[in-house]
Specification:
Elements: H1 5-23, E1 32-37, E2 42-48, E3 53-59, H2 63-68, H3 75-92, E4 98-100, H4 109-119
Helix pairs in contact: 3-4
Length: about 120
Protein backbone atom coordinates (compact mmCIF):
# COMPACT_ATOMS: atom_id res chain seq x y z
CA UNK A 1 0.00 0.00 0.00
CA UNK A 2 1.42 3.40 -1.00
CA UNK A 3 1.49 6.30 1.40
CA UNK A 4 0.77 9.85 0.46
CA UNK A 5 4.03 11.80 -0.12
CA UNK A 6 2.95 14.65 2.14
CA UNK A 7 2.33 12.26 5.04
CA UNK A 8 5.76 10.71 4.56
CA UNK A 9 7.37 14.19 4.52
CA UNK A 10 5.52 15.21 7.68
CA UNK A 11 6.61 12.04 9.46
CA UNK A 12 10.25 12.59 8.46
CA UNK A 13 10.16 16.19 9.70
CA UNK A 14 8.54 15.14 12.97
CA UNK A 15 11.14 12.41 13.54
CA UNK A 16 13.99 14.85 12.86
CA UNK A 17 12.40 17.50 15.11
CA UNK A 18 12.08 14.99 17.97
CA UNK A 19 15.67 13.80 17.55
CA UNK A 20 17.02 17.35 17.72
CA UNK A 21 14.79 18.33 20.65
CA UNK A 22 15.95 15.29 22.62
CA UNK A 23 19.44 16.82 22.74
CA UNK A 24 18.65 20.53 23.07
CA UNK A 25 17.18 22.08 26.23
CA UNK A 26 16.88 25.72 27.20
CA UNK A 27 16.94 27.25 30.67
CA UNK A 28 16.15 30.71 32.00
CA UNK A 29 19.86 31.59 32.05
CA UNK A 30 20.55 30.07 28.62
CA UNK A 31 17.31 29.77 26.61
CA UNK A 32 16.85 27.79 23.41
CA UNK A 33 16.71 30.05 20.35
CA UNK A 34 14.41 28.28 17.89
CA UNK A 35 14.21 29.23 14.19
CA UNK A 36 11.17 28.50 12.03
CA UNK A 37 10.80 29.29 8.34
CA UNK A 38 7.44 29.35 6.61
CA UNK A 39 6.96 29.96 2.90
CA UNK A 40 6.69 33.73 3.48
CA UNK A 41 8.26 34.58 6.84
CA UNK A 42 11.04 33.67 9.25
CA UNK A 43 10.46 33.46 13.01
CA UNK A 44 12.87 33.28 15.96
CA UNK A 45 11.95 32.59 19.60
CA UNK A 46 13.97 32.38 22.81
CA UNK A 47 12.32 29.64 24.88
CA UNK A 48 12.83 28.58 28.51
CA UNK A 49 12.04 24.85 28.36
CA UNK A 50 12.04 24.43 32.14
CA UNK A 51 9.06 26.73 32.67
CA UNK A 52 7.70 26.41 29.11
CA UNK A 53 7.73 30.15 28.41
CA UNK A 54 8.77 32.25 25.44
CA UNK A 55 11.17 34.91 26.72
CA UNK A 56 11.63 36.89 23.50
CA UNK A 57 10.41 36.57 19.93
CA UNK A 58 11.04 38.27 16.60
CA UNK A 59 9.64 37.65 13.14
CA UNK A 60 9.79 39.13 9.67
CA UNK A 61 6.05 39.76 9.92
CA UNK A 62 6.42 42.32 12.77
CA UNK A 63 5.95 46.04 12.32
CA UNK A 64 9.40 46.80 13.78
CA UNK A 65 10.97 44.57 11.14
CA UNK A 66 8.91 46.09 8.30
CA UNK A 67 10.30 49.52 9.16
CA UNK A 68 13.87 48.25 8.60
CA UNK A 69 13.43 45.92 5.62
CA UNK A 70 11.00 45.45 2.74
CA UNK A 71 11.89 41.81 2.04
CA UNK A 72 10.55 39.09 4.31
CA UNK A 73 12.44 35.92 3.39
CA UNK A 74 15.91 36.32 1.99
CA UNK A 75 19.38 36.50 3.50
CA UNK A 76 19.24 40.25 4.06
CA UNK A 77 15.93 39.86 5.87
CA UNK A 78 17.45 37.19 8.12
CA UNK A 79 20.38 39.46 8.87
CA UNK A 80 18.03 42.27 9.94
CA UNK A 81 15.96 39.76 11.94
CA UNK A 82 19.09 38.57 13.75
CA UNK A 83 19.90 42.13 14.77
CA UNK A 84 16.33 42.70 15.95
CA UNK A 85 16.33 39.48 17.96
CA UNK A 86 19.72 40.35 19.50
CA UNK A 87 18.33 43.69 20.70
CA UNK A 88 15.34 41.97 22.29
CA UNK A 89 17.61 39.46 24.01
CA UNK A 90 19.88 42.22 25.32
CA UNK A 91 16.84 44.07 26.71
CA UNK A 92 15.93 40.90 28.65
CA UNK A 93 19.53 40.55 29.87
CA UNK A 94 20.22 37.35 27.93
CA UNK A 95 23.76 36.99 26.56
CA UNK A 96 24.02 33.22 25.95
CA UNK A 97 21.57 30.98 24.10
CA UNK A 98 21.38 27.43 22.75
CA UNK A 99 20.80 27.64 18.99
CA UNK A 100 18.04 25.35 17.70
CA UNK A 101 17.97 25.32 13.91
CA UNK A 102 14.97 23.00 13.88
CA UNK A 103 14.67 20.79 10.82
CA UNK A 104 16.59 23.22 8.63
CA UNK A 105 20.23 22.68 7.65
CA UNK A 106 22.76 25.20 8.97
CA UNK A 107 23.38 27.16 5.78
CA UNK A 108 21.81 30.00 3.84
CA UNK A 109 19.19 31.93 5.79
CA UNK A 110 19.64 30.05 9.07
CA UNK A 111 23.40 30.61 8.99
CA UNK A 112 22.95 34.30 8.15
CA UNK A 113 20.56 34.70 11.10
CA UNK A 114 23.05 32.99 13.43
CA UNK A 115 25.96 35.10 12.23
CA UNK A 116 23.94 38.29 12.71
CA UNK A 117 23.17 37.25 16.29
CA UNK A 118 26.84 36.51 16.96
CA UNK A 119 27.94 39.85 15.52
CA UNK A 120 25.59 41.59 17.98
CA UNK A 121 27.22 39.83 20.94
CA UNK A 122 24.94 36.85 21.55
CA UNK A 123 26.97 33.73 22.39
CA UNK A 124 26.16 30.15 21.38
Amino acid sequence: MLKDKTIVKQQKKLKLRRRIRARIRGTAERPRLHVFKSNRYVYAQAIDDVSGRVLAAAATIEKAFREKSKDSKNKKACEVLGGLMALKLKDKGIRKVVFDRGIYPYHGKVKTLAEALRSQGVEF
